[in-house]
Amino acid sequence: MTLRTQIIMIIALLFFQVELVYLIKKKLLILKYSLVWILIAMLLGIGVMAPEAFCNFTALIGIRYSMNGLFLALMGGVFLILVSLTVIVSRQTLRIARLIQRVAILEQSLEEHEGKETDW
Amino acid sequence: MDREKVLILIPAFNEMKNIMHVLKEIELYAPWAKVLVVNDGSTDGTCDILKRNGYAYLDLCSNLGIGGGMQAGYQYAVRYGYDIVIQQDGDGQHDPAYIDKALQVMEDSNADIVIGSRFLGKDKSGNQSTRVRRWGIFLLNKLIYIVCGVRVTDATSGYRIVNRKYAEMYAYDYPLDYPEPEAIVTAALKGAKIVEFPVIMRERKSGSSSINFKKSVYYMLKVVLAIVMVKLSYFLGGNK
What we know:
The structure holds two protein chains of two kinds. By secondary structure, chain A is mainly alpha-helical. Chain A contains four helices and no strands. Chain A has helices spanning 3-25, 31-49, 51-60, 66-119. Chain A is elongated and about 80 Å long. The A-B interface holds A 93-94, 96-97, 100-105, 107-108, 112 and B 38, 56-62, 64, 68, 71-72, 75-76, 79, 176.
């Protein structure tokens, strides 16, 4: 990796981090859901600043060409994000269901109560 | 058994043409029971009919699927202290004439859950479903036996009677879609005594089933996976 590429990538990563902070500040992204993105940005930062460490690591786990290791790492990152998104969607689905059920029960109880008051 | 503590739960999604017939029949066979219809986000005026005729109902503002609707009903039952919950479909397939018999079976056998099975009796005159579906049900019955040692003959039957202990469990934990086989496994793994009794199921009074071929394939995949996952969770997490 040339120095120029390294500088461009570091700047891009910095922009990415700034954008993350902006989204969190504007409450468009909840902190706990940004953790996976921050983690990935940090790992990318380490990879950009110390590419030889990444190459040594890929060699250590038996990947001959570090480019393949890079693709694997990126796929792993995307996989991690997709799993975390699925977890979030599942949790929201259950919470929405609970909310709909609770609203229906409260509405029924309210109507029954109002009905009794009218009878009285 | 205190009959005032019996709640009949009827999930209904777009059952405008059937629901009144079902409710009238229940009034005939179980006038002592409290009946609650769970309107699962119907768009055909089911809710208006219930309101106009003064029936108790829960109106879910969005369609949650039969499991989500049933769970809302179980939450209601627990909240208002009902001891027994009877599930009846809103399409008229379940004959309320069996309610007394079902309660008797529950009392005599000391069961926690009683299931009306269309395959148990000698009389096969009712709705026995298609051959492909019967095979699917047969496989689910076998899978349930392998996973939790409970022998059932109609794992997909929605005609059920549940006591308070398991109504509380279902109020907290009930599958959102295609819940019947999974609900058997969840309860059985918690030690529920499950007993079946023979019923004759009828054809839908009106309309058609929403389960087509594509949904049937999804149904089998989802239910098999869910049963295996329930067993796995139980195996890993113990009897909590």
